[in-house]
Amino acid sequence: MNIPVLSVMTWAPLVAAVVVMFFARHRPLLVRWASLAGATVSLVASVWVYWAYDRAAAGFQFQEEIAVVPSLGISYLVAVDGMSALMCLLTSIIIFAGVFASWTVKERSQEFYALLLVLVTGVYGVFVSLDLFIFFLFYEIAVLPMYLLIGIWGSSGEVRPQGIFGWAMGRTGVGTKEYAAMKLTLYLLFGSAFILVGILALYVANGSQSFSFLVLEQVQFDPTLQSWTFLAFYIGFGILAGIWPLHTWSPDGHASAPTAVSMLHAGVLMKLGAYGVVRVGMALLPDAAVDWAWLVGTIACINIVYGALSAMAQTDLKYVIAYSSVSHMGVVMLGAATLTPTGLNGSVFQMFAHGIMTGLFFALVGLVYEKAHSREIFKMGGFATMMPGIATAFTIGGLSSLGLPATAGFVAEFLTFLGAWSSAYQWWLFPAVIGAFLTSIYVLRVAKQIFWGPKSEDPHFQHLPDAVGTEWAALGILVFVLVVFGVMPSLAIAPVDTATVPLVERLTGR
Amino acid sequence: MRGTAYELLRLLLPEVTLVGLAILVLVAGLISRPSTGAQGQRPIAGWMTFVGLLAIFGLTFFIREGSLFGATFVLDGLAMFAKRLFLAAAALSVLGSLTNPQYPFARRATEYHFALLVSLLGMLVLASARELILLFVAFELMSIPLFLLTGFLKKDAVAPEAALKFFLVGTASSAIIVYGLSFIYGVMGGTMVESIPRALASGHPLMMLGMALLLAGLGFKIAAFPFHMWAPDTYEAASTPFVAWLSVAPKAAGFIALIRLYIEGVGPEALVWMPVVSVLAGMTIVTGNLMAIPQQNVKRLLAYSGVAHIGYMLVGFAALSSSGVAMMLFYLVAYMFGNMGAFFVVEAVARSEQSDGIDAYRGLAQRSPLLALAMLIFLLSLGGIPFVAGFWAKLYVFLAAVESGLYGLVFLGAVLTVVALYYYLLVARSMYIDAPTRRESVPVPGLLGAAIAICALGVVGMGVYPGPWVDVAIRAASSLF
Fold first, then answer.
1. Which residues pair with A316 in a beta bridge?
2. Which of A4, B69, B341, B409 is most buried, by CB atoms within 10 Å?
């Protein structure tokens, strides 16, 4: 047990990024293998952590601590509980699949992989660090590379708004990758300004010169301070989690980003937001969390329905997936707002399930685009005969998305709905169920139109290949995980339970 | 303190050496003046100045604390800190301008460096001044050469205009300062800074008026809102390595004066200034950041962003606490490296592209990756991103302000850093995302490259390991309370 396994997991991608940057100039294959090696080390470490996590003992395990700035009480303090262990596992799976999914990136692939790996180090860091300051540093690392990743390697959308909207959007450059990159970065940094103020407020108020989560957890903060810092954290992290009406960066950003970045961003980074609300907002400020639950839950309901309705209206395939993320993140936030163990389990499970399935979706959209060079849903048609593998994977992902039993999506939504029903606001259940219903409409519509419907007459879409080689690896991993966790939900529920039950006790047993 | 010649010399060592250096540069320039071929003379004056400044910077580590002339001239932690900052900034600026190919620099290098050294002398004296008249004289000694240096490219159409604007604003602000000082003198009946707290405690309305006028006058000098108008025009017209210095050292001098007059030894009475300075800081941050957005010229953009940075330093000042001052000093150092570095990159690009526009940076990352990386680091530092100096600077300033309960101001500042990142990212976008219009790399003269490298090292060093710098800043500020 002397290996600092969490540090290995967190920093391996960064080491790989350094290798890629300094030793792999003009050697594209080495770039990919080095990235894959970094991702594999992290995957192995996170699986091991997940496996070896002692569920009976619960609490935070694998703790490491190094003082960084002793005079300010900043230390590199990392540890995982059941919830963050699952999130690390999710991150590992997505980046592992993401490396395969971006195997075909041609332009400046060295910088692409390096930035992607740096970003992943930031994500791991957020999930494992218990020092709020280091947490914030990692959070910034996870956000910033996105600007370049979308700006350089992204794709401009095929959105052509009409009339007055066309004029207005033409002025601002809506739909271009530059616009999306700037919008995403500014929204998320705007959020981090809220988070920073909240963290500083807690630091000054706790009186013991410490940023440590373990110390702050013991402090009973003044109700007024709790109330506004909770709001600051909710808005700050909520922006990243895509809460309505601050979600508009997410469809633009995800639609413009290159495949692996969309996978990582929608699959993992949005979870950072939800994770932050639960870990920092709710666990440190229990009174405020209870007081503001109505707001969090109500906005989550709006997210679910609004996101689903918006997804129905899209004609661009990538925007459909992006809006479905907004809808599904609503489920995550709703589960958290129920303040019941079932609801919170559903919330965390949905983070995982949505992460995998949205990763799968974006990988598939990337493949379809690469082969058909189109994202326009109503131009494509009948692809299932030409690419059966991709069609099957899309359908499995879609069924999970609409919550079919035996997929991970079902478990997550079911638990969340149960939690909503047993919470203080039972009416939350109705918008949530309506959202699930709307999801089935847009998912099945897209699947039918593109894959299973009549074949398109367009000469461009007559001879399209199915997935090949490394592309299978990305799809296979994600589909496998989606089904395994759907059939055996206890794989995730058991460790998550050790984190959520004490949290709910803290929240409600005051 | 015995006023022996030895003691005198020991305490005044940097100033005395600097006077000697200035005269030496002047004489050397006179002797070596070539009749034709301007190239011959430039390096001598420049190199002498650079080496001399480094030597004086070294000397500051051999002087010890004390005071002279009945405590009108003190050498405390703050004075030492400020002197080293001024000297380091000046040395960097001279290093950056050593290879300046512009004709006036080659032709009149002696004058340029002499004026710069004299201005620097004013700053060094200012850092130690604890008496109002000495303070004012030092301020003028610092300011007047700056007017000359701004208009140094006199054949350039905009330089005289910028110099005139700077001169008019500068003298007007000096007049306001003197006017304010006259009230203060009237109420205090003396000119020693240390008697300000007592006079302030008496609550005499004229005293408050005098201090308010003084604040306005100093606001001009540091280019705080609403006295910031001169900065962009001046920066745009003057030579870039000089602007790099102008944007840092005189501002730092203004802050030292503010600290001496409004905080040092004043105690809880200082809290009367908190609302005023908070509003000033908030307005300065908002104005600087918003005005920077539409700028297409990087020098003007950096000028407005500089105004915003002054606002952030004023946040530390508004905290009116020991940690606030310390964090402001830390911010000054971070700002020095980040801002000067950015200006040096502007200089390198301008020499090759003949333009200061953002368009000149298109595809720089593919043409000169290292130069683009350096610029990115400086911009991120100015924007306050982790692992570069600016992040810690903003964080510490905010922390000090939160400790003083200024949540609103911190919130405003934090939100506006996002606005700042927008326009910094516009430059980054031009460098990294846009395709280059030309393929060949941007030539960077060795010495300018060295100056950029030093700044980059400073920014990254402070960002990765801020501890020692913070300790230095805290020590410098501790003597005030």
1. A376
2. B341
Residues of chain A with pLDDT under 50: none
Position B225 in a domain: no
Residue that is last in its domain, among B215, B242, B259 = B259
ipTM of predicted complex: 0.74
State both tokens at B381. Answer: 């530092």
CA of B444: how far to CAs of B75, B218, B349, B390, B450, in Å? 40, 37, 8, 25, 10
Name the token pair of A347: 């919330």
Residue, of B329 and B155, whose pLDDT is higher: B329
Q: Is B195 within a domain? A: no
- Is B216 inside a domain boundary? no
Q: Residues A403, A410: contact at Cβ < 8 Å? A: yes
B402 in contact with A, Cβ within 8 Å: yes
Res B1 pLDDT > 50: no
- Is there a contact between B120 and B18 (Cβ–Cβ < 8 Å)? yes
A203 touches chain B (CB under 8 A): yes
Domain ranges of chain A: 299-510
> Which helix (H) or strand (E) element contains residue B68?
strand B66-68
Closest CA relative to residue B310, chosen from B288, B339, B294, B293: B288
Per the structure, the complete domain to which residue B328 belongs is given by 268-481
Number of separate domains in chain B: 2
Q: Please check whether residues B297 and B159 belong to one and the same domain.
A: no
CA–CA separation, A315 and A309 (whole Å):
13
Residues 6+ apart with CB under 8 A from A220: none
Contact call for B411 and A197, based on CB within 8 A: yes
Identify whether residues B243 and B288 lie together within a single domain.
no
Q: Is A69 on the interface with B (CB under 8 A)?
A: yes
Proportion of chain B above pLDDT 90, given as a percent? 3
Nearest to B425 among A71, A185, A196 (CB): A185
Backbone angles phi and psi of A155, in degrees to 5:
-130, 140
Residue B63 lies in a domain: yes
Whole-angstrom distance, CA of residue B472 vs CA of residue A15: 33
C-alpha dihedral (B382, B387, B389, B391), degrees to nearest 10: 60
Chain B partners within 8 Å of A148 (Cβ): 432-433
